[in-house]
Amino acid sequence: MKILFKILLLLLVTTSVVAKSPPPGLGSDLPANILIMLDVSSSMNNGAAASPLSTPLDVAVDSNGNIFVAQVGHHLIKKFDANGNFIKSWGGWGSGLGQFKYALRIDVDSDDNVYASNYLNHRVDKFDNNGIIKCCDSSFNGSGRLKYPDALAIDRENNDIYVSYWNKEVFKINQENTLIYRQRVQDLIEGSSGNYPFGLSIHGDDLYIAHAYIKYYSKISKLARFPGPPDPWDGPYTKMFPTSGYAWDIKVSDNGVYVANWATHQVQRFSHSGVLEKSWGTQGTAANQFQSPSGLSIDKAGNVYVVDRYNHAIKKFDKDGNFISYIGGKSKLDIAKESIKWIVSNTELNKGANFGLMTWDSSARMLVEIKPSGAQEIFNIVDGITANCPFPSCTDIGKAM
C-alpha cells in the first residue's frame, strides 16, 4: 500500500518553495498530492513587498526625466530613472530631519530639488535631487503657522511654495520660510463642505486647485490675496470648472489642464479656459485603466504621469492619453499567482505529482480537484482569479481547513 502525502501551500504572501525528496526507504514511485491554497481576500490587492511600489500617492518628474514617488504608507520617497529603473529611496517614519510622518505630496523646483509635504510633522521638507536634506534651511512651516500640509506645488518661476493648511487654506511661502499670504479655500466656493484642496498646480500667473470631495477644480490668480467680489463664482479672480469625479490632483502645462478623478478612475484634459478636450481611463487593471488615480506630474516633453494607486503603479502617457510605459503594478495576489504558475510548470516539482487548487476568503472553494492533470488546469485558470472580499473577517484559515 502506497503512502500518500499532502503538501499544503499557504500562499498568504510570496514565499520561496523548496522541493523535498521522499523520506528514505519509501521508494521513488511515491505520488504526492499537493493542495495549493490561495488567499483571495481583498488584502491581497495591496502592493507586494517584491513590487517596486505599494499604494503610491503622488509623483513628480524632474528636468532630466527622473521620477520621484511618494509611497505614503511606507513614509518613503522613491527615485527612479527616466526608464523606470529604481535608483534609491529615503525617509522612514519619524520627526527628525529627512524623516516623514506621511509624505503626501511631492514636487520639484527649477533646480530639481525635491519637496514633500510632511503631514504629521507640520512642515514641507526640501531635499536635493539625491534625497539629501540640509540643516536649517530645508523645512518650511510658514514661521510655525503651517499645520497638516498635504497639497503642494512649487512655482518654478521663483520657487515659491504653495501648500494647503489643514485641508482648508492654501499658504504661499517663500524660500526664506516667510508666509507671504494665505487663502481660505472655502471663500472660493459657495459653502465650505467638501472643499478639501488636495492637488495644486502653478501655470503662468494662475494657481489651480483640485478639490478632493467635490467634482470641481478651481482657477485663481496667484497674484490675488483674496478671491474678489462676494460671489466667488462670478468674480474676476476665481473660476470653477466641473469634473467627472472627485478631483484628487491637478497638473497644468502648455497642453492644458489635467485632472485625476479618483472615483471615476479617469484622467481628463481641459483647455486653459476650462473646456473638456480629452478623457481616458475606466476602472480596471489594463494599461489604459486605473484603480483610483491619485496623483499627476508632467515632464518637459508634455508626457503625463499618473499614480494608479490601487494598481500600485505609475503610468506614463503622452499628452493625448496614449499609454507609453509604467513602473510597479504588482500586488500580493499578482506575486502569489506568479509563484503558483512557477510551481505547477516546474518539471522537477510536479513530476508524478497530483495538484489541486483551493481559494478562500470567508469560505473555501475548490477550483481544481487534486488529480494528475491538476497542474495544467491550475496554470490555465490562475490568471483569472480575483480578490474581492473587502472585510477583515473574510480570511479565515479555520473555515478553509
Q: Helical proportion? A: under 10%
Instruction: Report the uncertain regions.
Output: 1-28, 226-236
Strand order of the largest sheet: 1-2-27-28
Percent strand equals: 35-45%
Taking the sheet with the most strands, its summary is:
4 strands, mixed
The tally of strands reads 28
> Number of helical segments?
4
Using only CA atoms, what is the Rg? 25 Å
* Class derived from helix and strand content: mainly beta
Q: What is the CA–CA distance across the termini?
A: 26 Å
**What coarse outline follows from CA principal-axis ratios?**
elongated
Instruction: Give the integer mean of the pLDDT values.
Output: 84
Describe the protein in words.
- By secondary structure, this protein is mostly beta strands.
- Helices cover 7% and strands 40% of the residues.
- The protein has helices spanning 332-345, 347-350, 374-381, 397-400, and strands at 5-11, 32-39, 58-61, 67-71, 76-80, 86-91, 103-108, 114-118, 123-127, 139-140, 152-155, 160-165, 169-173, 179-184, 197-203, 206-211, 216-221, 238-242, 247-253, 256-261, 266-270, 276-280, 293-298, 304-308, 313-317, 323-328, 353-360, 364-371.
- Strands 1-2-27-28 form a four-stranded mixed sheet. Strands 3-4-5-6 form a four-stranded antiparallel sheet, with no helix packed on it. A four-stranded antiparallel sheet has the order 7-8-9-10, with no helix packed on it.
- Helix 1 runs antiparallel to helix 3.
